[in-house]
Amino acid sequence: MSHFSISKPAYSKIVLHSLKFPSSSVHGVLLGTNTDPSTVRVTDAVPIGHASISTSAMLDIALQQISIYAQKCEIMIVGYYASYENINQNKLCISVSENSNFKNLDIPTLNAYTNPGSGWTRVSDSFGSEPPAEKTLAKQSKHTASCTFENSTVIATTKKLVQENAQKLLHDFDDHLGNVSLDWLQNSKLNNLIQES
Amino acid sequence: MKYSTTECLERLESIRLSGERRSQEVVEIGEILERSNTIPKTDEGWMILEQIAIGGMDTGKFELANACIQKLKQMFSQSKRVRMLECMYLEANGWYNEALDEYNKSLELDPTDMNIPKRKIAILIAQNDISSAIKALLQHVDNFPNDLESWIKLSQLYLDEHLYPQAAYCIEELILMNPVNHFYHLKYAEIQYTLGNIEMALKYYLSVVELSRDNVQGFYGVKLCSDRLMQNISSSKKTLDSARGLKNKNTLSELSQLATERLLFAYSNPSATSEKLIYKDDKDIEEKPTPMTKLVLESWLKL
C-alpha cells in the first residue's frame, strides 16, 4: 500500500493542462519530495506537451531542463502524468515513483495509477513490472494506492480556477517552443492566482 | 467579456482565418451574439452560425449548437453542408449509429464526396477503434492521395499506436508533396530521433532551420542531436569513418555551437522569433522569458 498526497498547485495544473487542450493528449511531470519510501508528496506539476506525446526528442529536452530546475529548487521529479485525447481511454493517469530515488529509475520503480472514477488503482500491464501469471485479485488489491489531497481546499480551488478559465494562464513546453517568453517551468502567473484562490 | 457586435464579429473572423481551434472563445462570443440576436443575415452570418455550431458541439453546448443548425436549416433546407452539421450533432451526442446511417445515405447520393468518409473515420476514432480507423484512412488516402490533412491524421494515429516507421512513411509523402513546409521536416526529425536515427534526425532539423527563420524547436533539435552524436563518437573507439560528413566531430561541434548561439539569441529577443499567429491574445503573453527559464536554458547549454 503506497500513499501519495497531491498539492493544490500540482492538481490544478494537471486539470487545467488537460482542459486547455481538450482535443489532444497532454503530459507532464510531477515534482515533490519522497523522504519516506511509502509516501510521496507531490508539490508541483510541470506541463510538458500537447502536440505529440509519443515522440521523444522534445520530451528529452524538457526532462533534462526540468531536472536542472528541480536541482536548483532542491526538489525531485517524483512522477509523471498523462491525460488522453480520447475520453474512452483512461481519463487521467498518474505515475509515481515508490522508490526513494527517481534518478536511478528503472522500470519496476515507476508505477502507474489511474482513476476511472472509483478510486486510484494501479495499472498493471503498461509498465510491465509484474508477470501476468501473478496477477491475482489478492495481489492486485495490494497495489491500490491511497491518494489524498494536501488539504480540503484542493478540489474547490481547482473547480473555481476551471470556472475562471484559468487554463489561459497555463503554458507547457510546446507553447514555450512557439514563444520562449512563456513560463512553462513555474507558470508564475498561474501560481499567483492559485495562491490567491 | 463585454464586446460590441462589431468586435465580436472581428474576433470570430480572425479565429476563422487563423484556423485555430479556439472553441471555448467561439462559444463565449457566440452566446453574446445569440442572446442579442445580432448575427447578420449575410454570407458572413451563415459562416458564423456554422462556426458557433461547431464550437458548441466541441465544448458540449448542444443547445447553442442546435439553435444555430436550425437557423441554417431554415435558410438552406437542401444544403449538403448543413446536413453534415446535423450529422456531426448526432456524433457529438454519441449517437454514432444514427450518424453512420445518415452518412451512408448521403454517400449513396454522392459517392464522390470527400468529407463524408472522413466523418466516418472520425466516428471510428471516437469509438477508440484505432485499427479500423487506420484501415479506413489508408483506403481514403489511396482514393485522395493529395489530401494532406488525412496524411497528417494517419501519421498521428500511427504515432498513438507507436508504429513509428509507418508514421514516418506518411510524413515522407507529405514532404514529397510540399517540400518547403518546415513543419513536416520537424515532424520527420522528431520521429527519426524517436526511432534512434539521430543522424537522420539531425539532417532534418537542419533543413527546418534552413526553411524557417530562427526556429527555436529546430535549433533545440540541432543541439540535442549534435551533442548526442559527439558523445557517441567519443565513446566508441572507431575513428575510421569520422571524416565522413555529419560524423565529423568538428562539423558537429560547430553545429552545436551555432545552435547554442541561436537559442541564446532567441531567448534574448523573443519577439523576433516567436511564432507569428494571425490571432494572438496579447494581454496573456509575457514579453521576456523569466529569469528561471533563462537560467535553466543556460545550464542546459552547459555554459
Automatic annotation (TrEMBL), chain A:
Q: Name the Pfam families for this protein.
A: UPF0172
One cellular component term from this protein's GO annotations in UniProt: EMC complex
Query: Its domain of life?
Result: Eukaryota
> What is this protein's name?
MPN domain-containing protein
Which organism does this sequence originate in?
Furculomyces boomerangus
UniProtKB/TrEMBL annotation, chain B:
User: Which keywords fit this entry according to its UniProt record?
Assistant: Endoplasmic reticulum, Membrane, Repeat, TPR repeat
The record's subcellular locations are: Endoplasmic reticulum membrane
Membrane topology note: Peripheral membrane protein
Determine if Cytoplasm is one of this entry's keywords.
Answer: no
- Ranges for domain EMC2 TPR-like: 84-192
One Pfam entry name: TPR_EMC2
What do the Gene Ontology cellular component annotations say? EMC complex
Per UniProt, subunit arrangement is: Component of the ER membrane protein complex (EMC).
Q: In UniProt terms, what function does this protein have?
A: Part of the endoplasmic reticulum membrane protein complex (EMC) that enables the energy-independent insertion into endoplasmic reticulum membranes of newly synthesized membrane proteins.
The record's similarity note reads: Belongs to the EMC2 family.
Q: What is this protein called?
A: ER membrane protein complex subunit 2
